[in-house]
């Protein structure tokens, strides 16, 4: 008796419906100009069908609308609904979608050293790299009030962006010379840094971001999610 190992990732969405039957559509709660853009992009890379519910930032405060609190108590985006599963945090969502739908796509084999590097980049994006960028976002509007903090923030920015720049030396992508979900997760770090004009002396980061943003799936995600000011 021959045993077949078949999962949804082997099929297009329409083929999957025929073979497995109808499935619940993934719903992405998407906030404009936010981390949730990465989730739309990943779904495009995976070829999954999904719905998008768009939320707009307050034009004055730039904060997410209170409406998002009804989806998750933190009132943050991204959040996805997949059947009965409601998942928040971009890194957790990416990990979930990769484990459930990617098959062997967009990540190294989990028995390799490359996989450990891949996991490190997934966690590094929000665990370390985004912190000095967030501090800059919050402190810059304070003008002179934030002056004492600038040296430490700038030092950390140089530290992290220098690390990423060196990691990309001679490389096309972050892990094993193959595009992966680690590139998607880390893209927001590079895009926010670029918005502050922090990549001018970092050619590897510049080239990597340009390489990511020219992918057809990246452009499709913007079409579905709406204006994304970090895409340049």
Automatic annotation (TrEMBL):
Organism listed in the record: Shewanella algicola
Keyword Transferase: yes
Keyword vocabulary terms for this entry: Transferase
Name by which UniProt lists this protein: glutathione transferase
Keyword Acetylation: no
Reactions catalysed according to its record: RX + glutathione = an S-substituted glutathione + a halide anion + H(+)
Residue ranges of every copy of the GST N-terminal domain listed in the record: 23-105
Any one of the GO CC terms: cytoplasm
Xref: Pfam families: GST_C, GST_N
Domain GST C-terminal, chain residue ranges per copy: 111-232
Its EC number(s): 2.5.1.18
Family: Belongs to the GST superfamily.
GO molecular function per UniProt: glutathione transferase activity; peroxidase activity
InterPro entries: Glutathione-S-Trfase_C-like, Glutathione-S-Trfase_C_sf, Glutathione_S-Trfase, Glutathione_S-Trfase_N, GST_C, Thioredoxin-like_sf
CDD domains in UniProt: GST_C_GTT1_like, GST_N_GTT1_like
């Amino acid at each position: 008796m021959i045993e077949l190992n078949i999962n949804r990732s082997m099929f297009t969405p329409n083929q999957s419906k025929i073979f497995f039957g109808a499935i619940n559509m993934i719903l992405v709660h998407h906030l404009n100009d936010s981390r949730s853009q990465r989730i739309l992009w990943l779904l495009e890379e995976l070829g999954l069908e999904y719905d998008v519910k768009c939320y707009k930032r307050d034009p004055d405060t730039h904060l997410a609308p209170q409406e998002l609190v009804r989806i998750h108590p933190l009132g943050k985006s991204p959040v996805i609904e997949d059947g009965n599963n409601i998942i928040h945090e971009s890194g957790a969502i990416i990990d979930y979608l990769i484990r459930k739908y990617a098959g062997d796509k967009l990540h190294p084999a989990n028995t390799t050293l490359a996989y450990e590097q891949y996991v490190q980049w997934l966690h590094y994006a929000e665990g370390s790299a985004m912190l000095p960028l967030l501090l800059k976002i919050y402190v810059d509007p304070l003008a002179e009030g934030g002056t004492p903090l600038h040296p430490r923030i700038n030092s950390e920015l140089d530290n992290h962006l220098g690390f990423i720049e060196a990691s990309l030396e001679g490389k096309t992508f972050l892990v094993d010379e193959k595009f992966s979900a680690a590139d998607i997760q880390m893209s927001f770090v590079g895009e926010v840094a670029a918005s502050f004009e922090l990549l001018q002396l970092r050619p590897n980061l510049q080239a990597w971001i340009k390489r990511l943003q020219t992918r057809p799936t990246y452009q499709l995600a913007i079409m579905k999610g709406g204006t994304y000011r970090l895409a340049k």
